[in-house]
Amino acid sequence: MSDAILEVDGVEKRYGGVRAIDGASLAVERGSITALIGPNGAGKSTLFDVVSGFERADGGAIKLDGRSIYRLPAYAIARRGLVRTFQMTKTLNVMSVLDNMLLASPDHPGERLSTWIVRPWAGRRRERDARARALHLLEAFELAAHARAYAGTLSGGQRKLLELARALMLAPRLVLLDEPLAGVNPTLGRRLLEHIEELRRDEGTTLLFVEHDMEVVMNHSDHVIVMAQGRVIAEGSADEVRRNETVVEAYLGKVVVA
Amino acid sequence: MIAITFHFLTAADFWIGVGVLAATYGIFALGLQLNVGTTGITNFGQAGFMAVGAYTMGILVAKQGWSWWWAMPAAIAASMLAAVIVGLPSLRLRADYFAITTLAFAEIVRYLADNERDLTEGSQGLLGYNSDWFKLSLRLGDWLNGHGVHVTSFLFPLLLVSWGVLLVLTLLVALVVRTPWGRVLRAIREDEDAARALGKNTLAYKLQSLALAAALAAIAGFVLALNLTLLVPDEFDPVFTIFGFVIVILGGLGSYVGVILGSVILMTVLEGTRYVELPLSSDKVAAIRFIIVGLVLILLMAFRPQGILGSKQEMLLGE
B158-206 pLDDT, tens per residue? Predict the structure, then answer.
């Protein structure tokens, strides 16, 4: 691939004797919307965990923009511009929607205690800027009316939107979305997909997502990576993957022609 | 024949005693509120941090001849250092491991205080750390007398100072948790993985929360030491950490003003029940005091589970 933002090379992750990821290699092209698919237990979520630093890899190499992020802690990877969402939405339910957004403001001086002793104005100024950006994003995601409400009062679909909007507070280069449409009603789901496409078009953000809805995968991604049993077994455009026999086999089992 | 007299409720000495205790455990529980209510980390070792602070201060003054004024910041630093040493390995683990580790730490400190007699005098009690305070206390008493306040109790200056310290510290902690720094702590309480995914070094924040709680425990330890006039290991039993938790739950999880209320209520009940006269041996009467505290808690959980100043909506959303 010509210009990869994320390069995963021979990554392994073992849990005892189980090889959850068994030498997976893939590359995600800058500015693309790439789908990661595969049957249950293929290692997709584990790969997300390893790439985003939530699990430590047992071997291989991982590079973001050419720099190694292998075995860096999760927070350090997020600061370098790789932000993820979770299969089970992780909104902070006993905090307001706005606080959820403000929390994500990167490198906020007000998050250091020393700031409030030495130069409190720096913390306050940054908080004002972050608030403006947060309200702007909430506006775009049609959540501004709920800014003051507890995030726990939002519907499941709205929480998915909030989680994506919150990730964008970090102005990420690469966003990993783990089943962004799971449990989201079709209307909200369409809006979420529109946001994803807008994000790529307007900000040049790269997106990698795990999704089980094949229609979404076929219509909304420029590149598809297929995993099975901890390895990447195929990749290419949606059409190429659809016709690939190994992929069909992985999903449906071997077709025996009598 | 049960004789309960309520005359004690009108006695100034009773309230001064309760007041000093309420300030002591209020400062103590402020730290627990920061850990448990705001950060969501279960610190069962607060009595241990209090012991480190009180004994460091006592030993530096009584054995090393330090000035009390210098011994106090040194003792706060020692308590915070203990928090970092305890927290660094255990805060990486799941919450239950951290709780057990802090409890074990507090017991280790108490056993050390009991057995390292050269330093601590063990259960005989460490004396002789409060002469600087005495001078200050007398001067304060004289000043008050000179301004028309008739001071009868020698504890009165300690009551004033301890409440001043409690109110200032409550204000400071309540302000600091409203900053973006406090927002990160609340995010960790809600979902630590979410905070990590957004670029927060959660271990560093949990350590800061624990170290600040340890500093507050040390300050509470100074007030305790001045109130008792001698330090004995029994005053740092894990049950005092449980009292801290009772205060936090009474007042309401996450409410800092609630800590003050909870502490006043708990200490009034604990001290007031001393005056219940029953035809029982003294150890049985002591047990009954705990039963009463337990009943108060059960009633609170039944009728106001969020505590006096806690938010019901937050409690339900947090589930």
Answer: 999 999 999 999 999 999 999 999 999 999 999 999 999 999 999 999 9
> Chain B: residue nearest A131 by CA?
B180
Q: Do A97 and A214 sit in the same domain of this protein?
A: no
Domain-located, residue A165? no
Per the structure, the complete domain to which residue A114 belongs is given by 92-153
Predicted local distance difference test score (pLDDT) of residue A242: 85
B77 belongs to a structural domain = yes
Residues A34 and A103 in one domain: no
A97 and A76 housed in the same domain: no
Across the interface, which of B200, B208, B318 has its CB nearest the CB of A113? B208
Whether B180 sits inside 8 A of A75 (CB atoms) is no
Q: Could you report how far apart the first and last alpha carbons of chain B are, in Å?
A: 47
**For residue B5, is pLDDT > 80?**
no
Specify whether A71 is located in the same domain as A121.
no
Q: List phi, psi (to 5°) of B20.
A: -65, -40
> Which residues of chain B lie closer than 8 angstroms to A88, CB-CB?
none
Largest CA distance in chain A: 79
* Residue B179 Cα, gap to closest chain A Cα (Å): 7
Going by pLDDT thresholds of 50, 70 and 90, the confidence category of residue B39 is very high
Cross-strand partners of A12: A22, A59
Does any domain span residue B317? no
pLDDT for B297 equals 83
Residue B179 and residue A123: Cβ atoms within 8 Å? Answer: yes
Given a cut of 50, the residues of chain A with pLDDT beneath it are 1
Q: Are residues A31 and A139 in the same domain?
A: no
- ipTM associated with this complex: 0.90
Q: Are A88 and A139 in contact (CB under 8 A)?
A: no
φ and ψ at B202, to 5 degrees?
-65, -35
Q: Is residue B259 predicted with pLDDT exceeding 60? A: yes
Using DSSP bridges, classify how beta strands A4-15 and B3-4 pair: parallel, antiparallel or unpaired.
Answer: unpaired
Whether the Cβ atoms of residue B51 and residue B221 lie closer than 8 Å to each other: yes
Number of domains composing chain A: 2
| Chain A: closest CA distance from residue B256 (Å) | 17
Question: What is the domain range of residue B255?
Answer: 3-133+178-310
In a domain, A162, yes or no: no
Contact list in A for residue B210 (CB cut-off 8 A) is none
Say what percent of chain B tops pLDDT 70.
97
Q: What is the pLDDT of residue B148?
A: 80
Quick one: what percent of chain B has pLDDT higher than 90? 67
Within a domain: A166: no
Do A8 and A86 lie in a common domain? yes
Strand partners for B243:
none
Q: What is the pLDDT of residue B293?
A: 82
Q: Which parts of B197-312 are beta strand (E)?
A: 276-277
Could you tell me if A50 and A101 lie in one domain? no
Per the domain annotation, does A194 fall within a domain? yes
The overall average pLDDT reported for chain A is: 91
3-state secondary structure of B299: helix
pLDDT tens-digit series, residues B288-305 = 888 888 888 888 888 888
Residue B268, Cβ neighbours under 10 Å: how many? Answer: 17
Residues A121 and A137 in one domain: yes
Would you list which residues of chain A are within 8 Å, Cβ to Cβ, of chain B?
A: 52-54, 73-76, 78-79, 83-86, 90-95, 99, 102-106, 108, 110-113, 116, 123, 127, 150, 152-153, 166-167, 169-170
Domain harbouring B63, CATH code: 1.10.3470
Residues of chain A contacting residue B197, judged by C-beta atoms under 8 Å apart: 52, 54, 74, 78, 83-86, 90
